[in-house]
Amino acid sequence: MLKLEAGIFLRVFRCQDKQLMHGHLHLCCSDLPASCAATGRMGCTSNEYMCTFCNATIGSLADPTGFDLNYLRPTSDSRLLRYSFMWSETENLDQREFLTRRSGKRWSPLDQLPGWMPSRDNPVDFMHSSLLGIVKHVSCEILLRGGMFIRKANQSNPLEKFESFIQNAILWPASVGRLPKNVRTMAYLAQALSGGRVKADEWRNLAAILFIALYASWQEDGMIPNEEAPLPSHQNLTVAKSMIAQAKLVQKRRQKFLASLNIARNQDGNNPSPPSPRRNYARHYNNVLKVWTQSGSISDYMRAHACLVQAFQDWAAMGCHLVPYCHIALHMLEGLRCNGPVYATWCFGPERHNRILANVNHNGHGAGELESTMARAWLKMQLLQELVRLLRT
Ligand SMILES: [Zn+2]
């Protein structure tokens, strides 16, 4: 990239002589772990440096205050670059460790690029953050494993109504692509922490109809009841265990966060028992409506952003378990202002290309240089597609 910044001579269409061309890395858009690795940041699950864009800690996910941007201090890119160069200039491992703990930043080769800002130029991808992050987490963790589909006494099973609505009540257009056919399968995948078999476009399709499916599942006499879902019985042992584990994690994070704000845990100074997350149908439904607000213009984005903040603040107040992507979504408005609509930067295209390259046959050679093999396979595929196009015409 440094060579490209300085300029190299390349052949150009309809030019006899090679022309001087320059290249510039405008941004590096990826999921959170890849983003941290590429820019030399500490991992997104680290306690103090969860967010690339501000000073939010992982404990802030458990408290509504943690989703109030007025309380958060933006990351200083110049400070990160200063620490990064200090890190690269010392050989002392202890000194490097000290610098990393102080700033959350290690050296990254990208920091050498002219004009590169590690926080500003590193937006988190919408596909990973919203579809594979928030939609999946809200559907599987907050609603399904949070006990919102537990059957009430003498009433039909809300999960069956939800599945029946998705599979039978909607006539999807042919262009829609894939849709999750069984929410239980999704829950299993989420529990296994794989999620690899449920694709981002399936989550996108589910997100488009989630609030209608929830209405079909939860409504009583046309209204979403303003009451708590029943507690899981011994038949729902998986859900009960999951709820206890989530409550403990949320309590631990909240105590850390409040301690960082110098707020006492409780008046007696003792640790309270973990509160059970609130399971109010109406509050969950309102939050889902707010998260899935459609937006097309910048004023719509600002309205959607305000709704998003309210929804996550309410979920945090209800004691629900939230993940770093829920916080990162708060910074999406800044990214949209800098880089345009999400379609301009999302990773659907690159991910599809990754799959093509991953399927390239290299005869079992796992080590060594595979770049030329992949480049040849890529060119061959392009030429074959071009040949098919010419034959059709
Ligand atoms: Zn942040």
Structure description:
- The chain is an all-alpha fold and 393 residues long.
- It folds into three domains: 28-112, no CATH class; 126-344, no CATH class; 360-392.
- The chain is 50% helix and 2% strand.
- It has helices at 2-6, 32-39, 77-89, 93-103, 126-144, 158-169, 183-191, 200-218, 237-260, 281-291, 298-317, 324-328, 332-339, 348-358, 371-392, and strands spanning 8-10, 19-21.
- A two-stranded antiparallel ribbon has the order 1-2.
- A hairpin with an 8-residue loop joins strand 1 and strand 2.
- Helix 10 runs antiparallel to helix 11 (298-317).
- The longest helix is centred in the middle third of the chain and has 24 residues, at 237-260.
- It is globular, with a radius of gyration of 24 Å.
- The relative contact order is 0.12.
- Mean pLDDT is 82; it is low at 187-196 and 264-269.
- The site of zinc ion has 7 residues, from loops.
Secondary structure elements and pairings:
Elements: H1 2-6, E1 8-10, E2 19-21, H2 32-39, H3 77-89, H4 93-103, H5 126-144, H6 158-169, H7 183-191, H8 200-218, H9 237-260, H10 281-291, H11 298-317, H12 324-328, H13 332-339, H14 348-358, H15 371-392
Antiparallel strand pairs: 1-2
Helix pairs in contact: 3-4, 5-7, 5-8, 6-8, 8-10, 10-11, 11-13
The structure holds zinc ion.
Residues 51, 53-54, 56, 72, 327, 331 line the site of zinc ion (ZN).
